[in-house]
Structures
1.
Amino acid sequence: MIKHLRSAADLDAPTATLILDTAGEMAALAGREVKKLPTLRGRTVVNLFYEDSTRTRISFEAAAKRLSADVINFSAKGSSVSKGESLKDTALTLQAMGADAVVIRHPASGAPHRLAAWVDGSVVNAGDGTHEHPTQALLDAYTMRSRLGRLDGLRVAIVGDVLHSRVARSNVLLLTTLGAQVTLVGPPTLIPVDIAAALSPATKVSYDLDSVLPDMDVVMMLRVQTERMQDSYFPSAREYSRRYGLDLARMRKMPEHAIVMHPGPMNRGMEITPEVADSSRSTIVEQVANGVSARMAVLYLLLGGKA
Amino acid sequence: MAQPRADASSKIILSASDLHRVVDRIAHQILEKTSGATGTVLLGIPTRGVPLAERLAARIHAFEGIDIPVGSLDITLYRDDLRLHATRALGKTELPGGGIDGRRVVLVDDVLYSGRTVRAALDALNDEGRPSSVQLAVLVDRGHRQLPIRADYVGKNIPTSLAESVRVSLTEIDGLDEVKLTGGEDQ
């Protein structure tokens, strides 16, 4: 088993499948009366969050607690970081406290890679800048597999702000490893020119959502990340949602079995309409529940064995 | 460390037909001790406990026409030696419909050795529900207990040395039925 989860590219197909299978067992345990497992008793997991996050932090916290690990939450606000402490010094502090795993979210791409060099424990990337978010890709893959029964040969469209999306990058890497065919869809300003080739040569790119929808098993809508946009990438929010937003009319173009995903948080009315988000084909709430199982699987596989 | 020669000292303890007779006997004993297996659930401990539990249920069905619920209980997450080995993959936990609350649970495993697996199974069971009682059926008891645990149904007692290992093969997993004792010479 791997020591860190910094990138979805750290995972080969057998390892990724092992994580998804483990997540399946963890999900089965979520249904019983006592949800807690003694597995990681005495281990310490630090949630090191330099960026705001609700679901990811809570999800990691719930996952670690269900496995009986001790959880220390660290958010940049109200810590020494606001006094100017560097990531390295914070890392050394955590190291001295004996963290067995550090779950890090950071606005700078590559922060988990640096951190892994400074601490002895495992590092789990919970989102770094516009780079990667591997546990989101795992829970997405798990959701697809449990809804559609397979990943191999699945046709997946990832739609919207690919440029700023760490979710898109991790998903392309993981889904390709597991045999799915990914198409990136969005306005040309939000799809980097060589991204398909850089991530995996099998990835396709399209600028026309309507022509892609009829061939898809999964349509994953990305949030338009206005907080990361310094320039204007499209003329107006209305124009964006007319061309790339998923509404009921567009959803009807998808095959009967196809599902709609969104990593959250959603801009309702922008990339997805409320009717689509709340429809039975949307897996958005399921994705949150699966997130806990997927993260339990990752923590177990990283920390459960001999250090 | 000297590699033991292949099959240098292996001895077949139970042949296929011995193994079938032993399973038949345990099935009869379960029927006898649980007054007809009423309110009884068989839970196999992966890996080889699961097909054994299924076989016991099939034999009980053949003898008495009773369908006894069968499930599996994975104990990996409850092991006390997780940190001594590389991470283990999880097995399946599938409780039969109706659960285990208020029922008599018979845990089924292939080999009883230190007793630590059974201890973990009891902990796992405790988190799954509250059975009215718990019993243990094993194909082979090889001794060397490290915990105060004993089996209610034993297929065969095999006195072993710590250097030996007991290898249970079952058709469902290994392609043949047999129990073998190996090793134990040069330690």
2.
Amino acid sequence: MSTETAPAPQGNAAEDQRPRIAVSALTTNLREYGLIIALIVIMLFFQFTTSGTLFKPVNLSNLVQQNSFIIVMALGMLLVIVSGYIDLSVGSVAGFIGALAANMMVIWQLGPLSNPLVVSIVCLIAGGLIGAAQGYWIAYHRIPSFIVTLAGMLIFRGICQALLGGGSSVGPLPDGFKALSSGFIPDVIGPLTLIPPTVNAAGKTILGSGLTLHMTTVVLGLIAVLAYAYFGVRTRRKRERHGYEAEPFTLFVIKTLVASALALFLVYEFASYRGLPVVLLVMGVLISLFVFVTKRMTIGRRIYAMGGNAKAAQLSGINTERLTLMVFINMGVLSALGGLIIAARLGQAVPAAGLGSELDVIAAVFIGGASAMGGVGQVIGAVVGGFIMGVMNNGMSIMGVNVDWQQVVKGLVLLGAVIFDVYNKNKA
Amino acid sequence: MTTILEMRDITKTFPGVKALSNVNLSVEEGEIHAVVGENGAGKSTLMKVLSGVYPSGTYDGQIIFQGQECQFKGIHDSEHKGIVIIHQELALVPMLSIAENIFLGNERARYGVIDWDANEARTAALLKKVGLKEDPKTLITNIGVGKQQLVEIAKALSKDVKLLILDEPTASLSEKDSQALLDLLLEFKRQGMTSILISHKLNEINRVADKVTVIRDGRTIETLAKKDISEDRIITSMVGRSLDDRYPPREPDIGEVVFEVKNWSVYHPLHAERQVIKGIDIHVRKGEVVGIAGLMGAGRTEFAMSLFGRSYGRRITGEVLMMGKPVDVSTVSKAVQHGIAYVTEDRKTYGLNLIDHIKHNITLANLGGVSRHSVIDDMRELAVANDYRKKTNIRASSVYQMTGNLSGGNQQKVVLSKWLFADPEVLILDEPTRGIDVGAKYEIYTIIARLASEGKAIVVISSEMPELLGITDRIYVMNEGRMVGEMPAADASQEKIMRAIVRGEGKAA
């Protein structure tokens, strides 16, 4: 969550007539809070309409595993869109990489190179190269990204299908590889049984009865929550030490408590099932990394400046060509990771893997508040946008809503979110 | 003479701000009536009320035009009555022809089929009236800003205009084009047309206006008749105080040569055979303010931008020396590293990220100065931004205000701050006071003087000769890609500069 609240200098007698900025920071972050609240409302809605299925630990694990690839790719897409570009090829690239991985592990006899870890690394590099190839034309020859990546979308879907020999699928993929998507982190600490499972008359335990906690997940969750609170306090201290007023203390406490409570609830949910899904851990690390890069690092700042006004950025000494290339390389690598996650979840590579997912990814970024003109958008927004799409998919599927109508609803939500944004901006 | 327009007690409030309070404006038929005021004084708001951009009902007060009270619901209504406004930012479609633009939305057509011959014939007649010698089929993108302005006027004439409103018509025109435009206004006046002229340029007002209405802080201050119009009088009532001197006093303390350019040549980026800059030599000393005078199209901006990381042009040759040593300025970041900064003439297009706040804009050219290992130190950045905000006197609610919401003068101060934070030795300022009001201009001049006294070498490119004469130590005159004159500011005068340009023109031909 954003910790960027606008502090105001204190004790600056001559100049201190400005309004308390901490208050206006709340309104500027309203979009972000509003989005999270929208996600919670949608989740509660489906929790109700699915008679409690949504929040069942097994379903939450499913939800994460089904949607993680969208969110991973949305991280890259956010940077692409903030830079003022678009990438339509991500679904096809993901499909192609899945096919490449499956062929390397199952069809081509590569000996030690068929090891899932080696294959994954090769595939990520291949994704980066694809991104570089597309980014090169966009950055150095100023070919519109819409066109370059539309071409990429056709090309890589075609290669994907060709690699899979027409309409067939390639599999099954080794278990070690599938763990990327369907695995859970090992419980190195050992489980803690709070309520022993019921044993029936035949001497067999009834599945899902009792309560056993995956302690490694619990410990990791607690560490994460404590770290979040610690860094929150530290940032506040630092601000105060420099003579700037941070947000009101009560607001800070409430924010931290609510976020921690939500996080602990999720930790409990996962711990009472099979623990933390591997893919959630990967996603969590990537999200933290991208939040840090966009909020704190110079390269992040430069990307926003380029998207806001490319000419001004250039005249401020920013190498916009190289930056564009890097944004597309990053997108390529994340598309490849998305492709690996899809293949690992299905346990095989299929010609239609990732088909149409570029639209879900782009929708997630726009629901998350990014501007199609570039220069505006937040990582957390894109992630929450991705989850909103995911929860709607999952919830409507459980409710038994027809797939056709699911699309209609998703389309309306996307339109509504963007109209809300534009309306808010005009009002401000 | 009869009163053609009377605006009575116009009050317009926006949420939280009173933009206009009881403004009165009375315009006689056949006169040129100037409306002046600092940026944000309410001139544009008043004109938007008049032209129906703010529809009747959203403001209080009366508009009486040709003896009738008018309640305009939109621009269409006011244009129907013959009130036509030409905005500062031209509203022409670049990829359409002159004729297409003039009759856009108003095409001579039968059943939706356009009669192109009729349109073009009519266009040709209109172009003749405004003195523009161009084929009606020429695309707007292929003619200069000065000519585009004339097309806008022709467009207004096509609508049977009774009252022509020009909002800062000469803001982006060269001296020559401005003169032509003002002559045209006088010609229209002879034909009996009434115009309202909004301008910052007091010498122009002096020349053409019959009356001047001064607006300050959303109120009418006074209306001056022709015989009372003087620059000093206008300035005094505009800013509410007397600016004894329009340029801050300065004791030049000039040292050794810091920055030198030798035999600089540049070719046009698209037309490979066209040489835009033809072997220029200049030098600037420590603590010196050097001006570059010239007409629009003389190549001044092209020269500066080609120096600054080859941001303009192709086949660039020549040498740049800092402290006598040749330096590589082939990219912007190299130029910045060597201590060169270029403050653009077009702050909105080239200077600012308008959708980001002041703080991020100020540090953009020197992110290294607020970061360690590529990680930005939030607190240091905030301190820097607040520091420069105070130094350059940026008026904003905080450094978290979007630069897009600032007035022109404050935007210019943000761009200046950005480059000051990059800590350059040489600062090239391209039209640093374009489109900003008298008060902000004075502040910019003060900053320039302070930088010079701190030992920076400063180059000022300006189309306003009084400004160059007022703030520089030495003036280069540029024309058609060459330096055609150089003179100490103390010996220079507008006539001398013009003479150098004209002589240079003769030489080039």
3.
Amino acid sequence: MIELKGIYKTYGKGTVNEQELFNDFNLTVADNDFISVIGSNGSGKTTMLNMICGSIPIDRGEIVINGSDVGKLKEFKRYRKIGRVYQDPAVGTCPSMTILENMSLADNKGKLYGLTPGTPKKRISYYKELLSELGLGLENKLNVKVGLLSGGQRQAMALLMTSMSPIDFLILDEHTAALDPKTAEVIMRLTDKIVREKKLTTIMVTHNLIYALEYGNRLIMMHEGKAILDISGEKKKNAAVDDLLNLFNKISLERGNTV
Amino acid sequence: MQLLISVLEQGFIYAILALGVYITYKILDFPDLTVDSSFPLGAAVCAALITRGVNPYLTLPVAFAAGAVAGLVTGLIHVKCHIRDLLSGIITMTILYSINLHIAGGVANVPIFSNDNIFSVFPFKDALGIFNTTVVILIILIVAKLLLDGYLKTKSGYLLRAVGDNPSVVTSLAKDSGTVKILGLTISNGLVALAGCVMCQQQRFFDISMGTGTIVIGLASVIIGINLFRKVPFVAATSAVIVGSVIYKACVAIAISKGLAPIDMKLITGVLFLVILILGQFGGRLKK
């Protein structure tokens, strides 16, 4: 369970560009929730993910993960329980290392990185099996450097790598936004499969309203640091893309934009 | 012949150093100026031990350890005090200048001509004749290279490569990328000091200024080696770096044999490095 309690966050504090984003923000993510988060640019979606993972500090409030306050826990330590996939496929993999080396790195998460062989020979067939499930033919390119792969292939690998070790939470930061529609579809289906199989509690930020409705059990629309819409279960199932679009436009108009 | 032997001796010594620079420059993408002082640090430790009658072979691990500490300091300054990479190296480099003088007994020059060294106590000295020094250096170089190659294939080595390649992956693996960087700097400067130790015994004296421009020689070796073998498969980067070092030393030797005075050594070193950098641009990517 992830709980955000009374979160305050202001960017550029004390400068002319001071901008308050979160003012007493609260959110509880229950175990096995799969939340889709939508909202316009600057609504605080990515900031929320960054605060949970510890990539940026909060001004006030509490972030509680599995019952313990992680406020003082450094970013890298929080990733013991969290896997994260970013919008940019380049962020999740090491480009000058081979597919095999990347897989071995991810496989060892949570264990000691000591002086034993980087790629244990007996694990190679397991890696091949995992890769073949992607259906991208990567299992035949084990010694190819990941930097030579396409964005979609790299993103698939990044997703696979995050889910190889036992984690509780999956944080997806617009992870299909940089991909072509077909590849995005492949990655989304893979995401859903992994989330179900590993029973991961998931927060997915997306700009794709169809994905937001199609996947997950709960949907949140963010606006100016607040969750202005929070639906789950049947209500989410019955919501339509048009409803969301109408709400989106309404917010936009309130801010003085024209449709 | 004498010239060739001299080039090989120097080239192999600086190749040990270049292996260290390879770790920081190529793997970690960290321009580490500590090198200019950790090289003479190895030499100072060596001279101090040898003049006290310590077994010459023992100077090698001790010098490595001393250099490792220097790298550790640079790493801590960079990671824990959040000082920029270049400045962290400069700070340690400056501090080490005084430390090196202390280790050398307060003098800028320590001759060890009359003492035993790794070459004079080598068991096959007589059989090897004029090649003795070259062979001993080559053995040390090969051992260092094989150990480094082996290390880079371990889990810890993978993590080191990942940190230079994409630090966010290391963070995602719940590992502190700062700690891994420090580890890399430690190993790197250990190798550099080891090279300084061998250098001291080859030239048979320690000199406080022997480190000036070392980083340039190291970088030049790495860049020549990597660029030369970029399109050649199955040549380990560490091997490429060794070849780079020998080529670089050969270029300097040729320049001097063509009539340039030894006092122009650093001038040649610097200009040659510039030429290599410019040529490297034509060859495509300079850095990864």
4.
Amino acid sequence: MADAGLTYGYFPGCSQKGSAREYEMSLLKVAGKLGIDLKEIDDWSCCGATSAHATNHRLANALAMRNMLLAEQQGLETLVAPCAACFNRLITTKAECRNHPESKKDVEELLSASVSNTTSILNVIDLFDKASNGLIGSGRVRDMKGLKAACYYGCLLVRPPELIDTDDSEQPDSMERIVKATGADVVEWNYRTECCGAAHSISRRDIVVDLSKRIIDDALMHGANVIIVACPMCHTNLDMRQRVMRRMYPSHKEIPVLYLTELIGLSLGFTESELGIDLHYIRFNMPNEIMNQTAQA
Amino acid sequence: MKIGVFICHCGENISRTVDCPRVAETCEKIPGVEFSIDYKYMCSDPGQKLIKDAVEIHKLDAIVVGSCSPNMHERTFRSAAVAAGINPFLVEIANLREHCSWVHEDVESATQKAIELVRMAVEKVKRDKPLSKIKVPVTKRVLVIGGGIAGIQAALDVANAGYDVVLVEKEPSIGGHMSQLSETFPTLDCSQCILTPRMVEVNQHPRIKLLTYSEVEKIEGFIGNFKATIRKKARHINEDICSGCGQCVSKCPIKKKAFSSFEEGLAYRPAVYIPFPQAVPNIPVIDESVCTYYRNGKCGMCVKACDRQAIDFDQKDTMMVADVGAVIVATGYKLYSIGKQPLGSKYKGYGEYGYGKYKDVIDGLQFERIASASGPTSGEIKRPSDGKEPKKIVFIQCVGSRDPAKGISYCSKICCMYTAKQAMLFRHKVHDGEAYVFYMDIRAGGKMYEEFVRRAIEEDHVNYIRGRVSRIYEENGKYIVKGEDTIAGVPVNIDADMVVLASAMIPHDNAPGLAQKVGIPYDKYGFYNESHPKLKPVESTTAGVFLAGACNAPRDIPESVAMASAAASKAIILFSSDSLEREPVVARVNEDLCAGCFYCRKVCPFGAVEVRDIKDMNGVVYKEVAYINQGVCQGCGTCTATCLSKSIELAGFNNEEIFAEIAAL
């Protein structure tokens, strides 16, 4: 592969090993094919998301920093965090420790170690947009045209604006750039950065179903035939909760939801089961144009 | 030398923590002190009389006053000294209030410190030399930069007082943003109707030299004696010949290549154009960037159309120099661009509002053009996208303003009022229209302002919703405005036909560049700083440079006009005598000692240090030394501290005086 030898630390977080294991499958497959060496950090723990940061600020900071410290100790300068919640926890803690020396000191005391706080954090969009620009195009064996993708960022990948290095938190276009590189078309739609309901999926399913259905309906209305996400929580709400939507709204029209890495994986020639696409609740049917290409190949 | 010491109680401000009688008693024993006394209010008339009487009775030569900061009453006591026949620079102030009583609690040690402070002042005053004021000549002409309402007002006031004015405007016409407005709050009178007579007056005034389509290149010199270099950009029209008939404009075949900036991008203009019908001067400009002639040397339709041969394709920019005594900066503002910001911009845009993406999401100035009788829709409220009459308009206030996350913390001040006005105009023109205003607070401070907003709400039934809008998107030809009503505590969705964003006022992009040319400081946004926020609102910190209007901070029309008149009167005061008197506390160079390293020149914040040639008997230059322009020097002392050969001395603060103070401690 062209630009081989990129080594990054890999922080899976809990979802990659459980509810979003197809996200990990596809990420590792795609990274391997593109020559990106993702080295899972040894002895990683919870990132401090939701339950920790909602109840104990110091605990949340210490958990996030612990993982960044491990990366540092294991000689990994850059850490890839595919889950949007992990990503957000890590950059938030990093910024807090950078801007508030007393927070850094507190975390260091809790961890009984000094931290340099220099680990760079990437989410999956960053990884493919910035770190490996151009790799997807060169490794592409399938043109994903025929797919009309609604790129869905959700909330945590692009916010808060002061911490995220993006052109515009409200109208981002980094995911669109990657999706276009696979040959797929992107649709203009309105709900790219709206909330899916996130962790309310457990406690207030009704809210999540409402919020997520709006996102799905808007994508459909603008002609999408697939929604692309880069967050396990978004995927759960948009994919799994469509079953509830179908029960509550008989007229509900289904739409498959793919991880960004799965779409890249398809364009790189992996099969659906290699990428874990068959694990989704809503079945993804490859458009005929793409299937025909495969037959020819 | 006989010295008098006068200790002020400042009511109880000083005497609460300093034993004033004891200070007076102790200080009488300092060698050289002839007389010492304390008094409750030394700044009062009886207090000053006490000083004058003591000077007379005890034949005093110099005075030390132990009182408040010299910033407060140094002038008072110097005047009292002058009245008693003492040179004002033989008066020293020992600051017993800000430097002592206000910051200490223990009476004993505060009293000791007060005595020490007075002792220092006594030692300094012993070495003080009488100084007299410096006189500098004044050129009685004003340069006004910016031809908006503030610049127009300032120019007219100065000219009507009988002094010459050079008015420089970078656009082809004067009038500024006010000429774009439809009607003005809180009276709803037509903006152009009240402005254009003033524009004409400027053009016809014998004392005003109007330079439009011109920019200030540099300004040198100092108060009373500035030299301004002005670039007159090539219009490619001979101004002396052109009659303003407009034949060239109507014949120009370039119809849809350039947006009219006067119409805020809502209409096109030809390559040769007059920005608007009432433009002053009524002379067109050829825009080289779109004109066919400048691309391939062909066309020339305008040349054929002009029967006075006024078209001059070869015209070049010209430079001119104006000698002026004062400068009034009135460069105004621009609107915050709401859409996506270029990478590296210090502002974050509002991508969520889709400005620039949705044609019917417009800013306040664009709505002014739509509502204006001279605008692209002749004053009928129509959407830019399809020309249909919108039935439901949502106005959003504070777009950019008061939003540190997007880069601006300040309130733009005028938006509450102009939004109320625009909503009102819409309701007057579209009777079945619905107007919604999202606001954070309504800030309607000003004469008849609150009443005006109430009228919009109560008589014109504009729906005010307190809350912010999170997103605007298009759905089935409507703009869905998603917001929150924070009073009712509910989310609000409005399907609007058009959205007007009241975006923040910000300085022009080149505001810092101009500030550097003129030599005035600006804040982090690029607004020009006033010398004192309360007491010197129209003075810049550079003597002889005054500020008017929105280049200083967001301002509405009445404030801009008031500032302009104030700035004009400051300039007129400057011209009230033939020479200026300056405080003699300035630096002087000992030319024999000066080695000509010019470190002083590098550090001087006011550009007061010049190079002077020292010539021998035959007129041959054998040495260059620093020379400090007495008119420019502000007496800050930076050069004195920097000078390696100790050849610069600040009058009233020379080394001998300062060391004597320190030694007295």
